[in-house]
## 1
Amino acid sequence: MSDRPADPCTIVILGGAGDLAKRKLVPALYEVARGGLLSPSTAIVGLARSAGTDGSWRDAVRASVMEFAPAGTFDEAAWGAFAGRLFFHQGDFLSPETYAALQSRLWAIEAERGLPGNRLYYLAIPPSGIAGAVRNLGGGGLVRRGEERPWTRLVVEKPFGHDLASARALNDEIAGTFDERQVFRIDHYLGKETTQNILVFRLGNGLFEPLWNRRYVDHVQITVAESIGVEGRGRFFEEAGILRDIIQNHAMQLLCLVAMEPPVAFEPNAVRDEKVKVLRSIRPQTPEEILRDTVRGQYGPGALEGQPVAGYRQEPNVAADSGRETYAAWKLQVENWRWAGVPFYLRAGKRMPKRVTEIAIAFKTPPIAFFRRMGVTHQDQNVLILRIQPDEGIALRFGAKRPGAEMRIEPVKMDFHYSEFFGSKSADAYERLLVDAIHGDSTLFGRRDEVEAAWEQVTAILDTWGDVPPFDLPNYAAGTWGPEAAVALMARDARAWRRP
Ligand code: BG6
């Protein structure tokens, strides 16, 4: 995080009483304030439809900070200082009248605290409300378009649209009110330390960058596995599915960071230019290829850690005959000079045996099976594993001679764990991203063309899937690594998914 002093500003959370605000935003803001990364006068204003006062909102925020801030970080002195920054304003974010009153309230707060009028609007609201809220912010005169100072910025949460057309429409709507450089599209995976470390690992070490290409890499596997199910978000998931919820954003962002060319500078547009190139290099697939190279799965009843768990169709607000996918796998090709011929396999799933996000780079085996005359007929590939979470770290698997008279090669592992080396738990992704937005640094946020390029790829899959409804769902039991078809997808290429 930047150690420049942060601009004093007013952070307005639309959806201030919602789940995201409660679980993620206010605990992150508390931590950021506790760490001295907010200007002393910065105010945080929650806008919500439900009745409330500054006092009742402070009580609610206190409860969420106690519940969701990292263990052991709550202290009364820090809380007292933080509580003084919190203000509540009641209003419906979809109603234009709300915004005139909100503007007067913000002016009053800014006058009282000597704030210069920098505004960060955080849309922690359902996707269907984003366009309306943006229009109302503009219509109500709450946006200083393009101005350097005092600045206005907009932070938008995912899901950003539900296909290419809706993402474009939303981007058009936002562009009617904000300049692109004022818009910060959040993908919280980019705020994770281990995600940021991908580029550091690649570009800060002489050992690996020379190997990072089709000459040495056999294939890449990107896994985003979660043991949780849909956690009361049945209604949302019925509309979204895992392709939209995880692959289109988190998994494709990881893909970009692994596959991109070194940017000309570590600066927002240079980094994002290279990411967009990766997305545009993904080879378009025909519907037949999509059906061959993707897998849809849905969990049925099963067990996790010995406890029975319900199937997706038994979750609240899920149709009894739902065709929605809770697992997706996708084999794609990044068709550029660096990666031609190297398949990338992406998979994401709910109710997997464990929570793990990792990127595995499998290297080609040596050109000669040198030890074959000594009985070594098979040699494992060397694999580099970037563990994004939860056991953050990097591991390198290679072969070593098993001690003894016989020639036997066994896979062994060099393993780096963040927790062992750096000790303290790293900042939550939201803390990092909030600080960056306040500083106006959009390196870790999605640019318009980037989000649309990802949707373009994913929309092709959604269209094909829409035309050919799945017939075999549910096709994996909760607590297993996904459907047989996903195993077969790899087996066809004489490969296998890792069992992290
Ligand atoms: C969110 C998805 O974006 O990411 C959720 O909507 C998912 O479905 C979550 O559970 C995973 O985030 P993390 O940081 O726990 O890996």
Note: The chain is about 35% helix and 20% strand.
## 2
Amino acid sequence: MSTSETTSRPIQFARAGSGPVAIAYPNMALVKYWGKRDESLILPVTSSLSMTLDIFPTTTRVTLRPKAAVDTVTLNGRRVPPQTRVRVERFLDLVRDMAGRSEPARVETNNTVPTGAGLASSASGFAALAAAATAAYGVELDARALSRLARRGSGSACRSIFGGFVTWHAGTGFGAAGDESCYAEPIECALDVALVVAIVDAEPKALPSRTAMRHSVATSPFYLPWATASRTDLEQVHAALAAGDLERAGQIAEHNALGMHAVLLAARPAIRYLAPRSLRILDRIERLRADGISAYATIDAGPNVAVLCARHDAARVVVALRELDDTMAIRIAHPGPGVTVTGGDQR
Ligand code: 2P0
């Protein structure tokens, strides 16, 4: 099987099981989510905007185990570390509270994305878990309510409930009003684009994004200016996508991402996710633009670079990145689907 096949197709489970199975895809933000106004409900400071990808799916099966004492959680066939298990258990508790049920569950997840490498594995992970767990416990939610639930697992997961381009509304207020007004929804896009993902480093990053977010919001003097500019960025990217203006959408997305990294660099102590190779890719993208190709970078909380371009330019972008380093893993993503759930016989 080629690399492309192994990272685009959902991985099936080796063992038969009775619980529902959900498939969700990661998303890449063009206007970033960075900073929470409420840590426990995961209410962000700013709204954000993303593209759901058609690569790196997460497949999750949730099977209720009424006779078990505790939940079990596996990732790619292995038990997860205690802190991940606790995070999943807390999320299942939310679903159990909604259902008025208490049975433990077995959660089996297969990820095709390098976990923890700044490629949004928590987004696809909690989107798939939200869909599979609500199906398993018999909780019926519409897509908006499902996005609000997924948000409680990991903020960016609310955007992976939907396919294509998606806005996550920060909403207003705190408590129940904040929770109610904070959800994702799909938006129109008149562009036919690709995101070329250059995997500079697939190892788990040294500092999780949740920790980096909290630290940089608390200590970086650049946070407030970035968050303020982000509101305008979102309006402008939204309008540019609707109008089919790739240059405008790309320019603002690149500013927004580099601004987030400036926030991180100005934190005390500084957080630096960008690697030398990330910067070389930024240089190469500038040269591509000088050669007349509309290509723009975005970088999450890690060193990997995603390049937004027209679908018909994606192959040229890949060639340009390969010139820098022919060993680097590069994948072409297009707008992908929202979460889907199938099977399950245990309602
Ligand atoms: C984003 N990121 O908009 C931003 C840009 C990373 C950089 O959302 O604490 O794992 O679980 O809500 O969702 C990563 O943050 O954080 C993220 P939590 P999450 O995609």
Note: The radius of gyration is 19 Å.
## 3
Amino acid sequence: MANVIVIGAQWGDEGKGKITDLLSRSADVVVRSQGGVNAGHTIVVQGQTFKLHLIPSGILYPDTECIIGSGTVIDPKVLLEELAQLHRLEVSTDKLFISQTAHVTMPYHRLLDKASEEKRGKYKLGTTGRGIGPTYADKSERTGIRVLDLMNRDHLHEKLEWTINYKNGILEKLYNLEPLDPQAVIKEYLDYAEQLRPHVVDSSLKIYESIKKRKNILFEGAQGTLLDLDHGTYPYVTSSNPIAGGACVGSGVGPTVIDRVIGVAKAYTTRVGEGPFPTELKGEVGQLLGDRGAEFGTTTGRARRCGWFDAVIGRYAVRINGLDCLAITKLDVLDELKEIKVCVAYELDGQPCHHFPSNASEFARCRPIYEAFPGWQTSTSHCRTLEDLPKRALNYLKFLAELMDTPIAIVSLGASRDQTIIVEDPIHGPKRALLDANGEPVSSTNN
Ligand code: GDP
Ligand code: IMO
Ligand code: MG
């Protein structure tokens, strides 16, 4: 048995949804610990596409419990839409549980997120506009509304009448916006509360009971390491902690229950929103990666910025998350390229720099130092074992494992569940991986 954290090792959208769905076949419980409906996780099963924002990516397995933990922020309206989408597709949501201590994204959070972005002008952060920053700000300021507040009519009236009047002052005076009608908002949210009530639980206790029964628990990350509020590219980050440590805080489990941490990284890099991106490709190759990788945001539809794989960031993700192994996704997107580059280090003010600089202005001045490889220029999307891969593709993976001094456990070659090479099952398998720490491939015959 193993309890496993899956995190994004780059700027989000690494394919965490696909990897979590894949690993969920061996999980009893899947937990989302942080973030809100800024996340967009895509799962493709037998040609059918599921887009999830808050519901854990284990939901397609009828016997798997899915828990939205206390460190998340919940937009009830979007969550109910997501539930309706799953019901239309005949997916059962009976085993979905929502933490009563998670904070709730309210209409004023969405309005304030968009209004403050507009006011920032050229200093905007490029948020998803889903009210995430303002919801977490209220949580820190201790004026937030929690799921348990929604469940108590009198309590909600009392809290929201005061809060909405306070927020209306900001909406009207600072942003020149129409005020919200407190009674209309209360009515709307009480209605949401009744629909969600059957799912609401003490999530930390529920997870603890599963731990006691030695169940397999999968913690599904949202966003990515470089979007972490404390360790990412501040201020161009989200307002929660997507790193591995955040999974413990956000689900209410101690670090001693975690057996393994898997970092998901694309075979190249993408970023949505503003902020520095050393390996960004603005020309033809960036366009090709965007087209072949269908790099448009699952949540906002915005085009993702594309660039070469950045091993400085990869090493940083290994350090910050204590990664045991990697899942490399979207290798197939590189199939047509004549030449593939990898950033092995930066040049900072004329000096080589091998470590991710925690000083934001230094990071903005970093220029990539590349190593180039000949591309394999043949399709990999049908490959199911290491032996099926073209030698140059295998060498590319080997190089990444060496650069990050971390084994690769999973390689993804397409959006579908089956377009995957799993050499080691990180839940059941021994601590052995596709490529060892020296980058040497190991046999894949025991899948
Ligand atoms: P997440 O936020 O980390 O779950 O990632 P997203 O779902 O936002 O974005 C990843 C996108 O890539 C989705 O459209 C996936 O269906 C797709 N995808 C995942 N793995 C692969 C892969 O190996 N190859 C290709 N071509 N697409 C993939
Ligand atoms: P998943 O889970 C990619 C980015 C936004 C913006 C910054 C702050 O699908 O990987 P926010 O709305 O959170 O205040 O925006 O964070 N961002 C993501 N980028 N994937 C995500 O989630 C993201 N969630 C937030 O684009 O740059
Ligand atoms: Mg996404």
Note: The two ends are 17 Å apart (CA to CA).
